[in-house]
Design goal:
Elements (H helix, E strand, L loop, with lengths): L2 H7 L15 H11 L11 E7 L1 H19 L5 H8 L7 E7 L9 H21 L2 E6 L7 H7 L7 E11 L11 H4 L7
Antiparallel strand pairs: 1-2, 2-4, 3-4
Bound molecules: flavin mononucleotide.
Length: 192
């Protein structure tokens, strides 16, 4: 399949629907290396990736997600909800936290540095899906919670979590979702 055909047909798979499994260590390394080959104004590499896989998923849920949810999201959450939140990362075989870590102050605008982190996320999605793995880019409450951010290494107030890329076993989603109307989005500028 050509790259163009792949991009015109690839689909994400919901984290809840991911089959068990994950890329092996060598494949994951290749996916991440491909993910890092993004446009990066100023060559600042303003991003970091934290890999959460295997037993670390449950440990992160127990030590970080659950207490953060109870403290910052819903103090009166029942045990069933807390258990659900603690298991959030276990929906996939591996969760890749992509941090946007801009250099500030710098002549390269922070906005452009964040955009480069978004490109890392999308490159990882494309790389993993091109290898056949079920993949989804999520933020949910977890990307914005101060305790989750701190636990992953967001050290300055400009640091953000650009996304959690969930990667499971191999599964291709063949159902397309509604796409925006091309003509509503694309226009050709012409001199007035
Ligand atoms: C920055 C970002 C954050 C997202 N966060 C969520 C989320 O929290 N919950 C959700 O259901 N979908 C979220 N999505 C959408 C999912 O990635 C969804 O799977 C995607 O829109 C499916 O489209 P695709 O098949 O074209 O990849 C997010 C997308 C982006 C770009």
């Amino acid at each position: 399949m050509s790259t163009l055909s792949f991009l015109q047909t690839r689909r994400s798979v919901k984290a809840a629907d991911m089959p068990h499994g994950r890329p092996d260590a060598a494949t994951l390394q290749q996916i991440l290396a491909a993910g890092l080959r993004v446009p990066d104004h100023g060559k600042l590499a303003p991003w970091r990736i934290v890999v959460i896989e295997g037993e670390a998923r449950a440990a992160f849920g127990r030590d970080v997600l659950r207490p953060a949810f109870e403290k910052n999201q819903r103090a009166d959450a029942p045990e069933s909800t807390l258990a659900l939140e603690a298991g959030r990362f276990e929906r996939a075989g591996v969760v890749l936290a992509v941090l946007s870590t801009p250099t500030v102050p710098h002549k390269i605008p922070v906005w452009e540095q964040h955009l480069s982190a978004g490109a890392v996320c999308q490159n990882i999605v494309i790389a993993a899906q091109s290898e056949g793995y079920a993949t989804q880019w999520l933020t949910e409450w977890t990307a914005f919670d101060p305790d989750v951010k701190a636990a992953l290494g967001c050290n300055s107030q400009d640091d953000q979590i650009a996304g959690f890329i969930y990667v499971g076993g191999k599964l291709t989603n063949t159902d397309d979702r509604p796409r925006p109307d091309y003509d509503a989005v694309v226009s050709h500028w012409s001199a007035g």
